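Tutorial sheet, problem 5. The four components below are modelled jointly, 1428 residues in total.
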Amino acid sequence: MNSFGTRFRVTTFGESHAAAIGCVIDGVPAGLEVNESYIQSEVDKRRPGLSKFATARKESDKVEILSGVFEGVSTGSPIALIIYNENQKSSDYESIKSLFRPSHADFTYFYKYGIRDYRGGGRSSARETAARVAAGAIAKKLLGEFGVQVLSGIFSIGGVEAESLDFDFAKTSEIFALDGAKEEAQKTLILSAKAAHDSIGGCAYVKIINAPIGLGEPLYGKLDAALASALMGINGAKAVEIGEGVNASKLLGSQNNDQMDKEGFLSNHAGGILGGISNGNDIDLKVHFKPTPSIFLEQSTQDTNGECVQFGLKGRHDPCIAVRGSIVANAMSALVVADMLLLNSVSNIGKLKKIYG
Amino acid sequence: MNSFGTRFRVTTFGESHAAAIGCVIDGVPAGLEVNESYIQSEVDKRRPGLSKFATARKESDKVEILSGVFEGVSTGSPIALIIYNENQKSSDYESIKSLFRPSHADFTYFYKYGIRDYRGGGRSSARETAARVAAGAIAKKLLGEFGVQVLSGIFSIGGVEAESLDFDFAKTSEIFALDGAKEEAQKTLILSAKAAHDSIGGCAYVKIINAPIGLGEPLYGKLDAALASALMGINGAKAVEIGEGVNASKLLGSQNNDQMDKEGFLSNHAGGILGGISNGNDIDLKVHFKPTPSIFLEQSTQDTNGECVQFGLKGRHDPCIAVRGSIVANAMSALVVADMLLLNSVSNIGKLKKIYG
Amino acid sequence: MNSFGTRFRVTTFGESHAAAIGCVIDGVPAGLEVNESYIQSEVDKRRPGLSKFATARKESDKVEILSGVFEGVSTGSPIALIIYNENQKSSDYESIKSLFRPSHADFTYFYKYGIRDYRGGGRSSARETAARVAAGAIAKKLLGEFGVQVLSGIFSIGGVEAESLDFDFAKTSEIFALDGAKEEAQKTLILSAKAAHDSIGGCAYVKIINAPIGLGEPLYGKLDAALASALMGINGAKAVEIGEGVNASKLLGSQNNDQMDKEGFLSNHAGGILGGISNGNDIDLKVHFKPTPSIFLEQSTQDTNGECVQFGLKGRHDPCIAVRGSIVANAMSALVVADMLLLNSVSNIGKLKKIYG
Amino acid sequence: MNSFGTRFRVTTFGESHAAAIGCVIDGVPAGLEVNESYIQSEVDKRRPGLSKFATARKESDKVEILSGVFEGVSTGSPIALIIYNENQKSSDYESIKSLFRPSHADFTYFYKYGIRDYRGGGRSSARETAARVAAGAIAKKLLGEFGVQVLSGIFSIGGVEAESLDFDFAKTSEIFALDGAKEEAQKTLILSAKAAHDSIGGCAYVKIINAPIGLGEPLYGKLDAALASALMGINGAKAVEIGEGVNASKLLGSQNNDQMDKEGFLSNHAGGILGGISNGNDIDLKVHFKPTPSIFLEQSTQDTNGECVQFGLKGRHDPCIAVRGSIVANAMSALVVADMLLLNSVSNIGKLKKIYG
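Model answer (structure tokens):
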């Protein structure tokens, strides 16, 4: 249950304050160029401590390849990646050792497992997502061989939504904003929340371009279902939309249908997926993140004995998890699409004949 | 890829115009009372031809148990259920044999598999969901042994939203409306769309009550991720929300956090899930359905040679797939929770000691 | 746990005296010719009641295709096959209802599940293997597209071993004997055991020819490990050998190594598998079956209250399960190789480029 | 495909000359005491360089726990273990860089993946089995909580078989010999082969005691099938026997059946497994290993251009892989049984009621 994917399969390990976090990526086809510097550049995008819009926790997040790569190329053996944790100040967490931070996983982990690694949230910490991003980098490298690209950015912060999507601009924005005209307002909302010892929600957008027709394995391996699982499984995600999304429930069929002409689809309400299978159009995804549950305002909660306690949280936290969450959403989407690319390769006899002659 | 679940695992088969549809349910613990009449009563809820709000296709949808049950009780062996198709008028489909109905899976199946069973949408037909509902009935029977209930209904049609949720009322409503005060307006929207040879979208709500704390297997078997996958995989689903959902992205942490006192949670923005694990609160889900893509208005599309053609669809269709979709959403949610109930049973040594003493 | 395979995945259902047995085959590439008469011809090979060397139970074992095939060709959707049970004389089993037949699964099913379908062994009956053979037929059809053949026969009965392997002869032999010169002696052993109200063990041989190099997914999806699992999972199997098998443990490296020249391997001690991957040579397998546990001699056993009872079994049984077991071994081997053929198709980037251009 | 097990699931990584080997163990119930020194003591049993009966390669094989353990106890999160490779003399392998060592996986890896990490056999090196043993240690710790023990030793070397099984003696023997009376002869065979620049085969025995009744998930998760897969998947394994094994194919039913009295089974030809489920008796397994393919005698083989070459291998090798293989067989068996222990915990409603009240 700590593995993701079927044929491009990632198993992650590690906790916020364990010796290390990392992953094992199984199913990378042999012959793919894999190097640490590229993976590092992807991991650096979600690295903490880079701006006032992210947690101040300092981690170099240095990725090392342990296996599966020989002379710069994947060998078909599992690729293990490791990031050692440096900033392990367990003492910071004495104060929360015996209570449940509101809207955190502390409560549920304690009762499910009967034991809790309370240091920084343990396994439930978003720190684990660095391993996802590292794995996603390799997925994107594979996708790149076939022209597929996974783009992403921030669509909205606290209800302030982008009106246009500029994925190039997002790369340069400290908050990965998609709409330069809205970036300032979005930043202001984050900093205001932070200043008020509060936090704020937001929405990330992922667009996958050039995905070939045919990705997705109906009926229980549908591309949209897999993407929904991937995105809803990110820390703090509370809603996922594909294509027209929530709005589709408000439309008439004549408004929502994507008609075609000889050149292809005349619109893309579907968000690139029909019957759980990619149709060659852009795949459009939104994932909505709740505000960071870690806030400094005094709150009421239970301790591990079931008693009610008031407390004020301390520490270092992202004021808006959507920002770095957008990088994770990008990586998770890439993992899904890479997996589907492999799965789709045996959908009909014609493809097998290309391979086995 | 036609199986769903890990330990409570359902494999479905069948197409709209195959000899039969059905499923094999693997992992049902031995000793559960299972009888055809109960399963039938669940399947009847989504049976076509019952009202003017659903397709006029006539099917008795009679479920038979083929295996896995002995003297009315599950034996631990796989339970196979079958529903023979009766209404197989393939001739109806000659007209769409060589073209792709807009916003249907015709296009993607054709290009993925190189062959398409065009009769009624083949495998991509919502007819398959009868098997899901049958399987869901057994899941709900299992959950019932532990007091867990899965409730559902229609939250909105075409933007007309319920303001209160009455799951008892929904059971008696032809459209499973959750709010009696909105039912008439919602019905009117459906019938107006139908009269205009069009269709309309809608949103179903699922509420799971009495789920024990601890369901969900982090990090890639999270309860919310599994539910998102289950719901997004239903025909026509375009968005899934959990708890506060989309709205969470607009809130401050101080607004969205669920504080606790000695008695438990003081609010439920989380929708009953923290860190991917159930927290004992109600689990609240919304799934948004697009309008039925099958409409009778003339549309432009491609044929299988890539040429553009105009055509007007004929046949029998649901004017609003959300209505019967809500029954499927209920069943899929039950399947997820039943699976998680089994998975959670070995989360710690204490539980194992209860079993192996 | 009632599914077998990863990408060519078979889920079986049914018990000896359920309404039906059958299977769902998921992952058959679209475009494969599939017809009932071919499947029937394979199933007929293990049909009971055909000779004095098999049980006298009469079953027509008529296979029906329920789904996944359109106009004689697989569509990529799951193929469901069903065989209705005809010979359901439950009354035959009143005498064993409350006791455990020695060396049968009665004892273990009772204590594992707390309930037992005692009719004919329920799920543990070899009757279920008809579904495996039906699924195996489709696997063999797929393999045939690529020139791969799965041959089989009886190697030994009660220690009387074949000295040569003639797979064509085996097809015509009532006991599938591989060595015409030993057939009579082997038959005599079976009939003598039968006449003495006893049973006898035997060994089946499977040879797979023309398998391409590269099948097998190390390290935990090795071809030999998968074959061992497939064969050891057949009712009554107690040992599996690959290539030199048990004898390899008695040899020197210089005796067991397969040297090569320009044309290829100079010997085949390996049985066609190196490092868990096919090397292009014949794949040679032996599976050893225990004697049928159902014998008519009086035996001592426990009843379901734990009391010791003496009893004499009645009914219809195979005097030597290896005979029909060899057909099952053939089918199971085919399922493994078909699965590996699909899995191997994405082992390197070069193959993916052939598919996705 | 580099993962093993369903609920107690091990994913390994690493090659002979990668930076490290290791594993991620997913599904360890929370609350299990886990410490490095115990794991180390198990890993030390198969450590190279300890005697003249094993390879002279020097590795300290120091195991580190990276995650999943907090204050000495498992938390329910994945446990990652790592062993850094120290003895990475890649230069040793220049001579075999472009040829295929006979009866090694060099040939098959090259053609499957199109690229080969030739250093020490890469992923196909038995070095990876250190990770299996480390994982097996944790499995044995879990089993120990329930009184289950996994014993092992060498049954035969080059055909010289044990006549009695003394698992305590095996622990003290340099070759893990089960029969003290045969140890010397077995050692002599190994040293003679070594002196002749050759190698020799052997057979390991595993006995599992105190396994509860009910382990094994029929029909495709049978205990015997899973054990066969686990053992046949070990480097160099060519045959697996359970209970009476090969010999069962030579017996009459009256000889092979295990009758019962009030106290239980009167014999154990079954090797503790009936219908794929443990029956409470000892589980008896044999795995036959081929002689080490690495021998120093001159041999004929192909190079990567398909040309025939003569060559004499150099380096450090085990003269008999069965010896250290017996430790791996022990570990793999433990992994299977631990997995089955978890899987069996939901076989019937009664067990679930113990957990969920």
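Marking note: Chain D touches chain A at residues 1-3, 9, 11-15, 18-22, 24, 26-27, 30-31, 64-68, 70, 73, 75-80, 82, 109, 112-117, 119, 122-123 (CB under 8 Å). Full credit if you identified this.
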